[in-house]
Amino acid sequence: MTAAGTVDAVDAPVPLRRLVPLSAQHVLAMIAAPVSTVFLVAGTLDMPPDSTASLLSAVLLLCGAGALLQSLGAGPVGGRLPFVMLPGGAATALFLQIAQEYGAPTAAGAVLLAAALLLAVLPLYARVVRLFPPLVMGVAVLLIGIAMIRVATRLVTGPDGTGEPRAVLLAALTVAATVAAYVLLRGVWRQTSVLIGMAAGTAAAVATGLGAFTPAAGSGFSLPALLPFGAPRFDVVAALPLLVFSLTTLAEITGQTVLNSETVGRTPDPARDVPRVARADALVSLAGGMFGTSVMVTSAENIGIGRLTGVRSRFVTAGAGVLLVALGLATPVSRALAGIPGAVVGGSALVVYAVIAVMGVEMLRRADLSGTGGGTLTAALALAAGLLPLLTPDLYAGFPSWARTILGSGVVAGTVTAVLLSALLPRGARPGPLPVRE
């Protein structure tokens, strides 16, 4: 509640007639990530169709449960902010690396160990929260946006990075439709501009032959199977990459929590909110390890939508969680959603992720970059450290796996560099709490 006794925007309920399309917009903006992750895992591990359907059901159910937990909260678990949850892209790559080298049961055990470690270190978080001033957060958020833009382009170009002209054109049409809806429409229609852009892009793909709507193969319903790879095996050495990843996710969680708080108009309180968000991540990841998924992470995907539409209510992402649970139970629907052309999803994602990058620039503007202190050099070197693995993906290929986990992630490398340099280099007055933009 505000001082005047009115309900804060983030806590305000949304009428059902608006809630459904707004929640569906969040689902459609993020559905490609869990679906593509499942088919990546299934293809790499040569899983049969029924196991693939079971894994897809599990991932969607966990994404929905995570969104509900983060949006509504349960005691000390969940940030009570409009968040959604996804299988982490970097975590999935590490999961597959462990599965290929040590077997799928060891990879499942590594997920459980990583989630347990994250829970164990959370009591120490309050001691290090001062290491994340606006300068560090601005660098982290900017790198998150840039990294996500790179991910979005791969949806357009494919994994080899070579884009076909028709795919690029389809993505451009999707972006144009999104911008047109945002500029020309008003009210709830304007707030669903991303959803309208995706629908228009899919229609254009079918009508012009630029793409095809091809639902994933399969039929019937499928519930997730417990322990699909058998009993987990626990090997700390094999799990080391995911253990390091679980620690470095605190930097991303901090940036996303502060960013989301500012987006909804809530005064950022990392010491209170970050452990709540991380606990939800860890608990859902523990469940994920039992159902064969990789580490689940709270995602910044929906933050850009919230900023773009101006809708701040956490009940919208809670509604998205309900829809995701329903999709996890109704696997024919989830297979149909998987048929949205990748270029359409990539075009919509480019709009959302670009907004996130701009928000990082806005946060950097609040830091002292006058040149009289160490702020300018800190930001420059941190951005260089974060951009190097994005621009040269094989730069650290010869390093040990634990080093690649840290240095090979642009967000982690840049954030850690910003934290260290911010503490070591001299600067002017120490930044105070992050202000809230009106």
TrEMBL record:
InterPro entries named in the record: NCS2, Xan_ur_permease
Statement: the UniProt record of this protein carries the keyword Transcription regulation: no
Main location: membrane
Localisation: Cell membrane
Signal peptide location: none
Membrane disposition: Multi-pass membrane protein
Highest taxon listed in the record's lineage: Bacteria
Keyword Transport part of the UniProt annotation: yes
Alphabetically ordered keywords of this record: Cell membrane, Membrane, Transmembrane, Transmembrane helix, Transport
TM ranges: 27-45, 51-69, 106-125, 132-152, 167-185, 192-213, 233-251, 315-334, 340-361, 373-391, 403-425
PANTHER family, A to Z: PURINE PERMEASE C1399.01C-RELATED, URIC ACID TRANSPORTER UACT
Database matches in NCBIfam families: NCS2_1
Family listed: Belongs to the nucleobase:cation symporter-2 (NCS2) (TC 2.A.40) family.
Protein name, as recorded: Uracil-xanthine permease family protein
